[in-house]
Write a structure and sequence with these properties.
- About 60% of the residues lie in helices and about 10% in strands.
- It is mainly alpha-helical.
- The protein has two domains: about 1-75, Double Stranded RNA Binding Domain (2-Layer Sandwich); about 80-145.
- It has a three-stranded antiparallel β-sheet.
- It is flat.
Length: about 150
């Protein structure tokens, strides 16, 4: 029964797999254990390796009588944060918000959301470029070998 609870908890964890060009492999990370990662030649391999490492980490924590981290998706967020800025940055961003005709809060929220979207788009484009480059390389090899 303990194992079922552990697997349910791990299934809720937030895993991410990214391709690392400099290492020529995929690297999997998990938000709940920021110090753990695993790599593999494929996304599936990197993820499977990390899931195995996370299972071992959770088992170790439980054996020590400690609780594993709560899944990020189960955490409650109030929706407010405290942000410290340099006074000049505060002045500049306040002016930008006034020029945009909105509150400082609305302006900063908009910037954060736009940046998050841009990051996701940039990651997707890089992955598409990498896959397209690999596919083009495979096609060149076939043409050169007569396959």
């Amino acid at each position: 029964m303990e194992s079922d609870r552990m697997k349910t908890t791990i299934a809720k964890y937030q895993f991410q797999v990214s391709y690392v060009e400099s290492e020529s492999c995929y690297v999997a990370t998990v938000a709940e254990f920021p110090y753990l990662s695993a790599d593999g030649k494929t996304q599936a391999r990197a993820l499977a390796e990390l899931q195995s490492v996370v299972e071992a980490a959770v088992e170790t924590l439980e054996a020590e009588g400690r609780l594993p981290p709560e899944p990020v998706r189960d955490r409650e967020y109030k929706g407010n944060i405290t942000l410290r800025l340099l006074p000049e940055t505060h002045r500049q961003v306040s002016a930008c918000a006034r020029n945009a005709g909105c509150s400082l809060n609305q302006f900063l929220t908009s910037l954060i959301e736009k940046n998050m979207t841009a990051d996701r788009i940039e990651q997707a484009v890089k992955e598409l470029e990498r896959v397209a480059g690999a596919a083009a390389g495979n096609n060149r090899k076939r043409v050169g070998t007569g396959e």
